[in-house]
Amino acid sequence: MINQPIALQMYTLRDASEKDFINTLKKVAEIGFDGVEFAGYGGLEAKELRNVIDTFGLRAASSHVPLNNIRHVLDKEIEIQLALGSKYIVCPYLEENERTEKDYIQLIDTLNRAGEKCAANNITLCYHNHDFELEKMSDGRSALQLILEETNPDWVKAELDVYWLTYAGENPAEWIKRYSERTPLLHLKDMTTDSERFFAELGTGGIDLNGVLDAGKSAHVDWYVVEQDICRLDPFESVSHSLSYLKSL
């Protein structure tokens, strides 16, 4: 049984959101999600957006914030989270030209400084992985290990993505256990069992989601976040299937 709230990463519904952001949020609430993880704010001011989600009975679980914003306009992003009632800012992605070992070392300093400022404002900074952070560095550790082991655990947490960990040949449950108490957010995805290893609705693929959820319970995950990067079904149908699967547990 899942006792923690379940959010939807709004990137999954990016096409619908671009056409009608507010109505897309309404549909997310109608499907039955407890909250949303933002990947942009639909052009709305934070107070207006807070009124919208309050009206629909949704909570702001977290926000994916581009690294450049974390570097240059962090104060503004913190203000937005406080207005939305969100407790988490997530660094979501590194561009290809920012993935050298030197870049990761510089990133660690950036995350520590940003995480300290976030913590002073009762916001938690998290790092979200893809597969490329599992490449080995010169000391034999993966870039993701480097990030999590060289940042201050009080200031920088993880949003582990179970699909990308699996895609890179890792066991996501083991990563959750390894960084227990440091994984407040968890991206739940599934993967097809064929050679394509494509994104799949939860419960229809081969990822050991029961193991993931068991590990998440022990790690005191705060929010489970459903995301499907690309949907072959209608995206609303895809996320409905995934939520139904989680609730069936």
From TrEMBL:
GO molecular function, one term: isomerase activity
Superkingdom classification of source: Bacteria
InterPro entries: IolE/XylAMocC-like, Xyl_isomerase-like_sf, Xyl_isomerase-like_TIM-brl
SUPFAM superfamilies membership: Xylose isomerase-like
Residue ranges constituting the Xylose isomerase-like TIM barrel domain according to the UniProt record: 25-247
Pfam families named in the record: AP_endonuc_2
Record keywords: Isomerase
Keyword Isomerase: yes
PANTHER family per the UniProt record, alphabetical: HYDROXYPYRUVATE ISOMERASE, INOSOSE DEHYDRATASE
Identification of the protein by name: Sugar phosphate isomerase/epimerase family protein
Organism: Fictibacillus iocasae
Lineage of the species this protein comes from: Bacteria, Bacillati, Bacillota, Bacilli, Bacillales
